[in-house]
Amino acid sequence: MDHDELYRDDHEHAHTHDPMHPHSQADHAYLHAHGIAHSHGHVHENQKAVINRLARAIGHLEKVKRMVEEGYDCSEVLVQLAAVRSALDNTGKVILQDHMRHCMVDAVAAGDQKAVEDICQAIDKFMK
Alpha-carbon distance 27 to 33, whole Å? Predict the structure, then answer.
């Protein structure tokens, strides 16, 4: 099952923001420090999908650990580690897409050059 099929259900709902939703002090501090008028805090349309993907990756990694403990063939362990890495990379891609579509749109509209620099640094670290 590909990314689009796996998360189509998560995309069915409209991405709405409640302007009356209270933000935490940390949210306010971040937004104020970056000069961003951010009406939705840091919750994105794919948050549930990302949390689910991470939970599956954690479960898969725990299985890999058990494989090592139980003496599975190294080649089998490496294949499973590659699957975990792929799952994490795809999760990062979903987070990055949400960030670009929401946070970065707001940051650019507010003229926040630091947010652009921050995402460039994050991409560099993510891509290593």
Answer: 10
